[in-house]
Amino acid sequence: xxxxxxxxxxxxxxxxxxxxxxSTYDWLLALHLLAAFCFVSGSIxxxxxxxxxDGDSPSExxxxxxxxxxTLALNYASxxxxxxxxxxxxxxPGAN
Length: 96
Known about the structure:
With about 100 residues, the chain is mainly alpha-helical. About 65% of the residues lie in helices and about 0% in strands. The protein has helices spanning about 25-55, 60-65, 70-90. The longest helix has 30 residues, at about 25-55. It is elongated, with a radius of gyration of 23 Å.
């Protein structure tokens, strides 16, 4: 029998791996670990950028890129999508 054989009863491929259901506690733990990792890596990156700049002033092109309305709108939209995905993962609407 090949690895991807199909069951005759339901015509779906067999599952090679089975994963247990993830509880709300597990999602929150993963979220907190991810947030801690982001905080630490962001702090390190910010410190290295400040150290590298050391008295250098930002250019006008950088100010224009940061103040661009399209960039800001896309940044806010991506943040809203991340929050929506987290809400869906935690509350799992439609799950039994």
